[in-house]
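Translate structure to sequence.
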């Protein structure tokens, strides 16, 4: 009997079977047709990194007719027909952001966005759509060039709190295109865009502070703006701050700090930062590092850097000679419009 007693006691100690948890209140609301609950649930799951789980409630909300859910579901998907189908559905349902996102997905090196999508987005109150359509009018992309129309669209975008629209309108006021030149107005718009988190606007405002446009010269304010822009990932801001450190203008003079900033600018895709870094490396006698930086600038489309690197490789200036690569670089420089490259490039064979 004792073994049986022990078995009975062991059975009592086994954990009771757990019942499957029911849906959370938010899940139940979504399943009941509350699209706001579907949207909140999908966004919460996405923020937690649960992309696949987030898609289900967003798709449910989209099917129930909430364009916001369609838009966010599409954002979670890679570029392709599935995402575009959801963007299109969201646009049909009156979600302006979905119209803008669908148009942006259409922009390719050899393809332009559908301006009717952007116009609808703008009409629906999406500032990004107004700004994108303004870009097309400003540069004459698939339509007659009209900086005046662009200014109107940028103004609407800015009024809708779109930082890109504020920044683009500021540039028109700075340059006097499509509007009468007004540096003070440009400063105010750049400031608004910068405070909204537009890194490029912070850099442009810094340049105006450095030059005293729209106000007095303020190199310290400019340095702070470049710092802010650089921290937000704008390569031009990093480069401009690097130049200040190189000269010791209102910041501590530091060649090392300048090199770090030029390197960051180069990594962020600012070709001039690469050339500045190349100059410092060349002065330090590090020809290989200088050549590497010039190569990056050339890859980013700066023709004069292609020429400089081509000549270095042709003559073997501190690096091994490489005539085939030198020829290719000089031809590329010429194709990019650098006349010095054209003059130095060998004749091309047919």
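Result:
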């Amino acid at each position: 009997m004792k073994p049986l007693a022990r078995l009975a006691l062991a059975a009592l100690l086994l954990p009771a079977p757990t019942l499957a948890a029911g849906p959370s209140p938010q899940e139940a609301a979504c399943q009941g047709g509350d699209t706001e609950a579907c949207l909140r649930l999908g966004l919460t799951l996405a923020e937690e990194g649960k992309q696949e789980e987030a898609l289900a409630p967003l798709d449910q909300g989209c099917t129930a007719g909430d364009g916001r859910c369609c838009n966010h579901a599409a954002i979670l998907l890679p570029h392709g027909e599935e995402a575009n189908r959801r963007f299109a559905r969201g646009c049909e349902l009156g979600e302006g952001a979905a119209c803008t996102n669908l148009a942006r997905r259409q922009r390719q090196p050899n393809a332009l966005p559908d301006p009717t999508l952007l116009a609808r987005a703008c009409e629906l109150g999406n500032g990004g759509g107004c700004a994108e359509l303004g870009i097309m009018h400003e540069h004459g992309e698939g339509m007659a060039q009209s900086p005046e129309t662009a200014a109107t669209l940028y103004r609407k975008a800015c009024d809708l709190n779109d930082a890109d629209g504020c920044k683009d309108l500021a540039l028109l006021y700075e340059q006097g295109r499509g509007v009468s030149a007004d540096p003070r107005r440009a400063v105010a718009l750049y400031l608004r865009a910068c405070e909204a988190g537009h890194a490029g606007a912070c850099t442009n405002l810094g340049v105006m502070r450095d030059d005293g446009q729209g106000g007095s010269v303020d190199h310290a304010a400019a340095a702070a703006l470049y710092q802010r822009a650089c921290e937000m990932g704008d390569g031009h801001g990093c480069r401009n701050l690097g130049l200040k450190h190189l000269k010791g203008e209102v910041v501590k003079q530091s060649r090392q700090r300048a090199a770090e900033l030029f390197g960051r600018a180069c990594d962020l895709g600012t070709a001039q930062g690469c050339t500045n870094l190349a100059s410092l490396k060349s002065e330090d006698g590090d020809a290989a590092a200088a050549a590497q930086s010039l190569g990056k600038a050339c890859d980013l489309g700066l023709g004069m850097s292609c020429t400089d690197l081509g000549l270095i490789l042709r003559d073997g200036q501190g690096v091994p000679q490489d005539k085939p690569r030198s020829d290719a670089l000089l031809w590329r420089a010429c194709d990019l419009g650098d006349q010095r490259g054209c003059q130095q490039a060998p004749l091309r064979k047919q």
